[in-house]
Automatic annotation (TrEMBL):
Entry coiled-coil feature ranges: none
Lineage, uppermost ranks: Bacteria, Bacillati, Bacillota, Clostridia, Eubacteriales
SMART domains linked: GatB_Yqey
Keywords for the protein's UniProt record, in alphabetical order: ATP-binding, Ligase, Nucleotide-binding, Protein biosynthesis
Name by which UniProt lists this protein: Asn/Gln amidotransferase domain-containing protein
Highest taxon listed in the record's lineage: Bacteria
Alphabetized GO MF terms: ATP binding; carbon-nitrogen ligase activity, with glutamine as amido-N-donor
Asn/Gln amidotransferase domain segment(s): 2-146
Annotated source species: Anaerobranca gottschalkii DSM 13577
Classification via SUPFAM superfamilies: GatB/YqeY motif
Biological processes per GO annotation: translation
Pfam families per the UniProt record, alphabetical: YqeY (PF09424)
Statement: the UniProt record of this protein carries the keyword Ligase: yes
Length: 148
C-alpha cells in the first residue's frame, strides 16, 4: 500500500474513532501532497510524497524550538503530537552512530579533510540519508568531525 492510500485509510479510521488530532494532521498532509502534485503538474512518486511529509515534519520541529524559546509550551506540545503522527509515515530515522559511520565512509571516499570542503562532503552524504536523517543533525556531525 502506498503512502497516499495509507493516509486515506488512516483518515477513515481516525474519523470512525473520533480522533480529531490525527484526522486534522492527516488532512493537512493530504492537502500538502495535493498542493505539491498541482505544483508539479503530474502525480507524485512515492519519493516525492516522502519529501513532502519530511518537509512538513521539519517545519513543525523548527516551530517547536521557537515556541519553546518563546515559553509557549502548550503550542509546542501540540506540535510534538503532530510530529509523532507524521513520523509514523516516514522511514525509520538513522541513529547518530549510523550517521557517523556514513560520514566516515564519505570522508574516505571524497578525501575531504577541512571544513572549507564541507560542501563537497555534504553533497556526497545527503542523498544517502535523505528522508532518514535531519539535515541539521548531519551538518552538525560533519562540522564536529572535520573540526577534529
Amino acid at each position: 500500500m502506498n503512502l497516499v492510500d495509507r493516509l486515506t485509510a488512516d483518515m477513515k479510521t481516525a474519523m470512525k474513532n473520533g480522533d480529531k488530532l490525527a484526522l486534522s494532521v492527516i488532512r493537512m498532509m493530504r492537502s500538502e501532497i495535493k498542493y505539491a502534485e498541482i505544483s508539479k503538474g503530474s502525480p507524485l512518486t512515492e519519493e516525492d510524497v516522502l519529501e513532502v511529509l519530511s518537509r512538513e515534519c521539519k517545519k513543525r520541529r523548527d516551530s517547536i524550538e521557537e515556541y519553546t524559546k518563546g515559553n509557549r509550551q502548550d503550542i509546542a506540545a501540540q506540535l510534538e503530537k503532530e510530529v509523532e503522527i507524521i513520523s509514523t509515515y516516514l522511514p525509520k530515522q538513522l541513529t547518530k552512530e549510523e550517521i557517523q559511520s556514513i560520514i566516515d565512509e564519505a570522508i574516505r571516499e571524497t578525501q575531504v579533510s577541512s571544513v572549507k570542503e564541507m560542501g563537497k562532503l555534504m553533497a556526497y552524504i545527503m542523498p544517502k540519508v535523505k528522508g532518514k536523517a535531519d539535515g541539521k543533525l548531519v551538518n552538525q556531525l560533519v562540522k564536529e568531525k572535520l573540526s577534529n
